Amino acid sequence: MSALRDNSRIPTPMSQVTTISFFRFDGLRARAWALWMMGAGRSPMARVPGIRFWKLCGSGGGVGFTPRINIDVIAILATWDDADTAATQTQTAPIFKRYAARAAESWTIHLTTNSVRGQWAGQAPFSVSNTNHIGPIGVLTRATIKPKILRRFWGRVPDISDRIAADPNVLFKIGIGETPLFQQVTFSLWPDAASIHNFARTGHHAEAIKSVRADGWFREELYARFTLQSQTGSWADTDIPTRLDAA
Length: 247
Description:
This protein is of the alpha+beta class. It has one domain (17-232): Alpha-Beta Plaits (2-Layer Sandwich). The chain has eight helices and eight strands; from the N terminus they run βααββααββαββααβα. It has helices at 28-40, 42-46, 83-92, 94-102, 150-166, 193-200, 203-215, 240-246, and strands spanning 17-24, 51-60, 69-80, 105-118, 137-145, 172-179, 183-190, 218-233. β6 (172-179) and β7 form a beta hairpin. α3 crosses α4 (94-102). The radius of gyration is 17 Å and the shape is globular.
């Protein structure tokens, strides 16, 4: 594996901060630039001072795991040793500034990890640094889907994603990923842990989890929960940042 693809060695600092930056692009030229940067942006991303694990991701056309591609939205997920480094680099590093300058809209959320299990590309990128669970909770699910169950997976999962989005407790939800169809990430924000628990233990979601365990849908999987620490920017002409601040 090359140094570029092996994003970094993963430390386990107690103060680790994870950021997810979302960029929305309007117009053909801006969208074409964003698509081109999916390849060209990797080298400058690897050179950002203080960055640890990082992923440059496209987004899905739905609200969770989805086979449809949304060419308007790009996400950058990254981990940092501390909050100051995360805040400084996501605002001033040249590659982040280039994305923000081209985007019609951008939004960055800062998170600390409450719990995590599994791996991402053979690595353990998130270290638990917050056990207080005070504030809105972020849930990240990442999976590499086995090719032999693709049809079955995509026949069932979009309905589950729609049900999550319809839940009145969900503050925000998006599907992102590295490789369409095969490597998928879903990220959602909830007002508290109780809301997540109530949803996860009932209905189609609970049935899907049973199927994953019984049939072995995924080649690799990772589940993580975070607490929202701060945010900058705005998103989708909605009140999402305002709702999060009030949650």
